[in-house]
Amino acid sequence: MATQNKTDIGLIGLAVMGENLALNMESRGWSVSVYNRTVPGVEEGVVERFINGRAKGKHIEGFTDIEAFVESIALPRKIMMMVRAGSPVDELMEQLFPYLSPGDILIDGGNSNYEDTNRRVKLAESKGFLFVGAGVSGGEEGALNGASIMPGGSEKAWEEVKPILQSIAAQAPDGTPCCQWVGPAGSGHFVKMIHNGIEYGDMQLIAEAYWVMKELLDMTNEEMASVFTRWNEGKLRSYLIEITGNILRHKDKTGAYLIDKILDAAGQKGTGKWSVINAMELGMPLGLIATAVFERSLSARKELREAAARQYQCRHSMAVYNKQDTEKEIFSALYASKLVSYAQGFAVLQRASDTFGWNLDLASIARMWRGGCIIRSVFLNDIAAAFEAKEKPKHLLLAPYFEEEIKGLLSGWKNLVAQAMREELPVPAFSSALNYFYSLVSADLPANLVQAQRDYFGAHTFERKDELRGVFFHENWTGHGGDTKSGTYNV
Ligand code: NBP
């Protein structure tokens, strides 16, 4: 606890996340100093409103002067920034530096790009301070009652910030805090980025399950809500499945189902896109999340889709489906595609860990996501167990437990995708996952032809099946090409 009337921690940024995190900290026994910038034209009196409102009577002190704010915090200072990602974090750091003491710790809890965090850790350390990039997931509710927090950066800071961060984190069902040290540099924000990418994937998959039930089986909102509620009692048990049931049941003031009135144009704030860009940079397939991001982009082009729909007049047959059987197939497609998505996401984390020397503990990350965050689910236990096995799987889908699961789901999964394609009903994430799976389990792929084409037109060379790996050949395909090869490198 703080001494000489100094507070335990400072928090900057009193928008929805900052306010709730400050209250969460205070409720766990920490005294908190809060600060929000005051800029003419932007909402004024933010600090005053909070101090006289939700923070009234609590161990929370408000400041509008940054120097006084810093001065109010006990050494070594811990200052958490919950502001918009990007330049605001850099601006704030520059404003804070003059008032900090050696060993003070800055924590960026926003959705910052991990490369920015790499840079900020170095900058802060070069000035004698410590910097933690901590992804926070759980939205408003999590911020107030327990979030999943993924801290990385200056490791020396961990012992200092651990008691506070773990106290405000959610607890997994076995009581472990959903906040563990992730690794150096921007690794915490990288892990949070992949978490968000997986969230995009899960949401798209659930939306496809909903769409097949609605469009092929002609189910009512109440019927679909009951299916999601039932699924939430089994292997798919998760926050997103749970809220989907609630959303489908929700009626607006007029007594009508709100879901039917919401425009089908999805927004996005960038973390899904970043996941895909970074997977590409690392040379790793992340097709399911990419599909989810692209589907949001296509959904947003509502007018174009309306025009195309008028032109093509695609129609579902009015075939009568056995609801129970088809529902089982939808379950199979959803669960199996989700496994593919997590397998792809964790493979990207492993590659990032190897490339950047982060030494990520994938089991610990899976466990951290079991509570507080948007993708929390029971099957993260199985993922953690797979990574903790004596013989570490080369890929999540090769772990014996998941092999059995996929084998049991495959028939329903492929039937559902095939049926949806015949019915001209889009299920891009279910089919992307299925195609990835078929490619993964194909010892032979037509990439020999791709290599031949590359060599034919650009002398890009190829390896041969009858020679050692790593030895590259060029063929004079036309008889009039030369022997000069292009360099053999991958980007
Ligand atoms: P916002 O992302 O909307 O950020 C608003 C806060 O940033 C306000 O306090 C604002 O001050 C401050 N700010 C801005 Br904008 N520019 C600033 C600057 N140049 N210097 C200082 N402060 C500045 O709020 P949020 O939704 O609470 O999110 C905070 C962070 O947490 C973001 O990085 C977000 O991505 C991340 N996050 C959000 C959620 C969520 O569910 N909302 C979940 C997980 C993580 P002002 O009041 O003066 O404008």
UniProtKB/TrEMBL annotation:
Active site, per annotation: K192 (proton acceptor), E199 (proton donor)
Biochemical pathway: Carbohydrate degradation; pentose phosphate pathway; D-ribulose 5-phosphate from D-glucose 6-phosphate (oxidative stage): step 3/3
GO molecular function terms noted in the UniProt entry: NADP binding; phosphogluconate dehydrogenase (decarboxylating) activity
Residues in 6-phosphogluconate dehydrogenase C-terminal domain copies: 188-478
Record-listed E.C. numbers: 1.1.1.44
Matches recorded under NCBIfam families: gnd (TIGR00873), PRK09287.1 (NF006765)
Gene3D superfamilies referenced in this protein's UniProt entry, alphabetically: 6-Phosphogluconate Dehydrogenase, domain 3, N-(1-d-carboxylethyl)-l-norvaline Dehydrogenase, domain 2, NAD(P)-binding Rossmann-like Domain
Recorded catalytic activity of this chain's protein: 6-phospho-D-gluconate + NADP(+) = D-ribulose 5-phosphate + CO2 + NADPH
Classification via SMART domains: 6PGD
Functional note: Catalyzes the oxidative decarboxylation of 6-phosphogluconate to ribulose 5-phosphate and CO(2), with concomitant reduction of NADP to NADPH.
EC category: oxidoreductase
Subunit (UniProt): Homodimer.
Pfam families the UniProt entry points to: 6PGD, NAD_binding_2
Gene Ontology BP terms: D-gluconate metabolic process; pentose-phosphate shunt
PROSITE patterns: 6PGD (PS00461)
Annotated keywords: Gluconate utilization, NADP, Oxidoreductase, Pentose shunt
Species classification: Bacteria, Pseudomonadati, Bacteroidota, Bacteroidia, Bacteroidales
Annotated family: Belongs to the 6-phosphogluconate dehydrogenase family.
Binding residue positions for substrate: N111, S137, G138, G139, H195, N196, Y200, K269, R296, R454, H460
Binding-site residues, NADP(+): G13, L14, A15, V16, M17, G18, N36, R37, T38, V83, R84, A85, N111
Protein name: 6-phosphogluconate dehydrogenase, decarboxylating
